[in-house]
Every structure is written in C-alpha cells, then in structure tokens.
Amino acid sequence: MKQSQILIPTKKEAPSDAEALSHQMMVRAGYVYQVSAGVWAYLPLAYRVIRKIENIIREEMANAGAVEMMMPGLLPADLWKESGRYESYGANLYKLKDRRDRDFIMGPTHEETFTALMRDSIKSYKKLPLVLYQMQDKYRDEDRPRFGVLRGKEFEMLDGYSFSADQAGLDAAYDKQAVAYRNIFDRIGLDYKVILADSGTMGGKNSQEFSAPAAVGEDIIVYTDGDYAANIEKATSQFTGVQQEGTPAELTKVATPGAHSVDEAGESLGMPSSQILKSMLFMAKMADETVQPVMVLMRGNDEVNETKLKNALDCLELTLATEEEAEQYLGAHPGSLGPVGVGQEVKILADEYVKVLVNMACGANDDGYHYINANLDRDFRVDAFGDFRLVQEGEIAPDGLPLKFTKGIEIGHIFKLGTHYSKQMGAQVLDQNGRLVDVIMGSYGIGITRLLSAVAEQQADENGLVWPDSIAPFDVHVIPINAKNADQMRVADEVTAQLEAANLEVLLDDRKERPGVKFADSDLIGLPIRVTVGKKATEGIVEVKIRKTGETIEVKVEELVNTIQILLQNNLQQA
C-alpha cells in the first residue's frame, strides 16, 4: 500500500482536551477523528487494527465452540421492559420513538434480544448447549465521554451468550470462554489481570473481569503477588478486628457544634476517629418498588462499599439520602446522624468491625450533638452485620498476602447469568424428563474498540504508537529517504514487492516529504518494523529499525525478507 493513497492525517500537536496518552497518540498518528463528543470515526489505520482484532476473536471463538451472527442495534423497548432493565439501566440508555410513537432503544448490550431469540426458536434440551456471539456497535449515553475511544457513546463490542439446559452446561461454556479470552488478550499482546468483579446491571451472581493495568484506567484493581485479584467493588480483606475490653459507660449526650465529619467529631470529643461510628442513611428501592431507608454503621473513617451494600440488600437502586430524607426519618442532617433511638422503619446494617467496639461515639440525631459511650444492644440495635467497607491498600487479602492497588482498563467481562433473564422472559425448554425448565445463560463481552486504547496506553512512548505485530495495521514501513532519487525508489519498490510476496503487509512511504517528516510520522504510526532505503541503496543495503526497542541494523536486500520474518517472530515470542 502506497502511503500517498491512504488517509493518515498526522498532527504535530495533540488536542488540548486529550488527557490520556492513547487519546493523544491516536489522534496525532491519524488513527481516529472525533465527529462529536464521545463519537469517533476510525480511519484506515485504526480500521485495519480493528479487523485484525476481530479475526483473532473469530479464531478463538471458533475454538471455544461459539458461532457468530448479527443482531440489530435498534431494539424494541418492550424487550427491556420484560426484563425490567428499561427503567433500572439508568440514564446511559438511549431511548427514542418511531413515527408511530412506539418506544425503542439503541442497544447497549443484547441479553434480552438473544433471550427472546432462544425463547422463540429452541424448545428442547436436545438443541442445547449453544453459544452465539456477535461483534457490533453499542450505544451508551455517557455523561462524560473522555479519554478518546476509551469511554465513548458508540463503540464496538463482542457480546456472546451461552444457553444450556443445566448448570453443567453453563459451567463448561463459561470455562471455555475464560480460556478463549485469555488466548485473545495474549495474542493481542496485552498485560492483563483476571479479577473477581460485580455483575452490576447485567444480573447474575458470578463474574470475572479482564482488566489491563494502565495509569489512565478508571477502575481500581486490588491484587496481591499471589493469586488474588478483584475489582475494588468486590475486593475483601481478612477480618482483623479484636474485641475491645472495658465496661460500658453511661450513655451521654454532648454538644459538638460544627462537627460534621468523623475527624471533626473526634477532635471535638477528644476521641480517636476509630472509636466513632460513621452513620450514613441510604434509600434502597426494592424489587417490589417500595423504598426502604437503610442506616449503615461504619468504624471511623472506613468508607462504605455501595456495591457490597446493594448486593446485601438485593435492591434495584441505592442512593444516599438527601438532607430532606435524613430529616424526615431521623430528625437531623448528615453529620449528626446515629443509631440510638432509631425506629423499626429504618433498617440498620453495620460493618463487622463495629461489632468489636465498646463505648463508641455517634451522632445523636440532633444537629450539633453526639452521644458518647454508645454500646451495641444496650443503646442501639443492628439488624445485620456484614462486610460493607472498601478495602485499603496493605490490608491482608484472603490469600494471606498484602493488598496492592493499581488502575486498570476493563477490556472484557464474563458472567454466569443463570436464569436471571430466561425466567423473566419465559425462555424455557423441555428437559430429558419432559418438564419445562428455564434456560441457563452466560454472557460474555469484550470492548473491541477500547482494546486500541488499552494497547496504546501500555505500549506507546513519547514518539508515538507501538503496535504488537499481531494487530499492527501493517507489518513493515518502507521509507525511501528521497522519493526523487531513482535508485532509492527502485530499491524501495523491489523490497516492497519481495516482502508482499512473502505475505507481509507493507506501507510504502512514497510521499515527497523531508526525511525528518517521514521518520516522525513513522514513529507516530508505530508499525513493528521500519526499512529505510537511503544512500546505500546502490550497494543493495538498507537499514532495518525495530520500533519497540529502537534497535537498528543494516541488511542486504537479498536477506531482508528472512531477517524481517525472524524479527517479527521474535517480537511475537517476546509478547
């Protein structure tokens, strides 16, 4: 491919709003073009990368027994109303009406659509198990699209779904998908971690997330040097609380003007923050649409893990109570809330570390006042204890090693949905005994376009992108220093033809640009190998540069194909 015939609009400067390295470099290197906030065009080079990623996915999905198909992106809202997600999914869901005033959505994911397909197509367990997948654009109305293609309103995603008549079928499909995902990310050249994760709006109880460590990542990966890794929302640590000694003292109400935080209350009362109860009021929307006020008690400055809390309550939505709601149920505002005297209409949950405390301080449900010497059971009740806290770096993980934190980009997620969707949407088959059973489902997703950002974040440098050979838009960049020099152009054409004959993909820079411009663009574009045809062209010698390491060697033209094949093979092995 001649560079003069392909659109590669390189730029010297990155956009002023580009925070992420991947955003900066993909715009500068002419891979993407922003049509509007969160909406991107993938230019020829990026499109070639995407197609190579798709081909890797297709190969590994076939090995896992999955079959590709295509669903529409425009979906009737009735399907999502059946599952309950039309209301619960949130503001990210694009909702629209057709000319007949019927409700539609732009699909952010396709569990409901595939469930409906199974419900209407498969009636017997003999047709199962079945794994179907697609690679298709998805639509989510992100409030803050950012980091280039990493978080956009439209993006390409692999979404796959397994259908089984029993749990064993789901487990087998899930395990095969887990292996396929590892193979895909290994072949793409990513550093990644497989972590325990929360299923969120997807439903189901078991899931694993594949996350690529990167400074720009919006997720926090909690891991150890052993086998433990989890999303911050799911992470746990070993309980190290020790029952405090001491005799419960008299409950006393104390004025604490201006003390709204744990630290301020501790300073006002002359007590350590670890001895003060943080009392937070939440409003939980339950499955029957009722709203349950829930007070959560935490030790000192421990932070509530809202995902753990929501899962424990098994509620549809969980929001922090407003000042008005706090006053309605407790008679005070946040900063002065506490469990003493709270009626049965408010459910009280407490983190397990609260159980070991004696003579605590807590809000008195009277603005500007706290109780001291509050004790469990004598002065206040707790309806249930549990692990409701966010873990802290350095705590001991379940595997006995210290927890470490790093940021990560979510690149894939697999879920054991079970019967979450099939039960609600009536997807059933006859089992071997002739009884109707709910189809057991799994859901599997990879953010295809965000893989570009993940690779760029991990492998780009200050000069530009650095693509692994497996997904690079071209294998080799051939650059004649002087396009007006007949000998250089002749040799450049010769080596291009030789490389292409060896099934290598070549980008030939035939532009009449200065050498410095060509080299800068080449570094930006980031192809694995660069072949420079210069002054020694008449001697049949060219220079080969490895983009990842910067190493250069001189090679005879007749040895070039063999040399580059060896270099590319080494790159694959090192990746």
Relevant terms:
3 domains; Pro-tRNA_synthetase; 575 residues; cytoplasm; aminoacyl-tRNA deacylase activity; Rossmann fold; BirA Bifunctional Protein, domain 2; single chain; YbaK protein; 5-stranded mixed beta sheet; ligase
Describe this entry's structure for a reader.
- With 575 residues, this protein is of the alpha+beta class.
- It has 3 domains: 45-235 and 404-457, BirA Bifunctional Protein, domain 2; 252-386, YbaK protein, CATH 3.90.960; 476-574, Rossmann fold (3-Layer(aba) Sandwich), CATH 3.40.50.800.
- The protein has 14 helices and 29 strands.
- Strands 3, 7, 8, 9, 10, 11, 12, 21 and 24 form a 9-stranded mixed beta sheet that branches. A 5-stranded mixed beta sheet has the order 16-14-15-17-20. Strands 26-25-27-28-29 form a 5-stranded mixed beta sheet, with helices on both faces.
- A hairpin with a 5-residue loop joins strand 18 and strand 19 (369-374).
- The two termini are 26 Å apart.
- The mean pLDDT is 94.
